[in-house]
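pasting for ref
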Amino acid sequence: MAIVVVVTAVAAGVFLWERSHRPAPTAPGSPRHHEPAIVHKESQTNGPGEPAQGFFLGKGDEKVFVNYSTPDPLLQSFMQSVMTSSSDPNAQGREIFLRICAACHQKDGDGKDGVAPPLAGSEWVLTRGGRRLIKIALNGMSGPIHVRDRDWNMTMPPWRENLTDDQLAVVLTYIRTQVGTNHAEAITPELIATVREENHPKPETAEELLRIGDK
């Protein structure tokens, strides 16, 4: 499951997940330091780690770091531009999915070893009512989780601070109805607003989510 975080001039940029900030320039004659790279190891279980703080938007000199763990005007502006660019909720959801979710869960929703579990065919995505999926998107998630007969140990960022109820509704509905062969009922902004009011300051865990009834 799990499930993913601008000025108009860079709205066409590509979202890339990063876990480190740019290194400070080195003085002349000092050893050259390279920016740490994220290496994903192929395995049956993702390695646990600290949640990323954000990602870079754009390319080259226009690349801008966007923080999704706190309110980020750049990201909020970009999300609003997506919503106003089309009146079709399916198109809006697809655009948000491709810009945010697909960076880890992949465009086909099948996930990737060492990065993120699948959304296509995920029991966490397709659960009746969708409350578990909403809580994951709002609050993030950490710790072990079983998805499609495989064990993962992953960290997902929270989107509570930067995605509105309408934005979450269109992207989560897109994931539940358009990704892979998924077919589940739509998620409404009203339901997201209700779940948002529930206080949960830390990332969700699978154990906590399993206590939620399938209503």
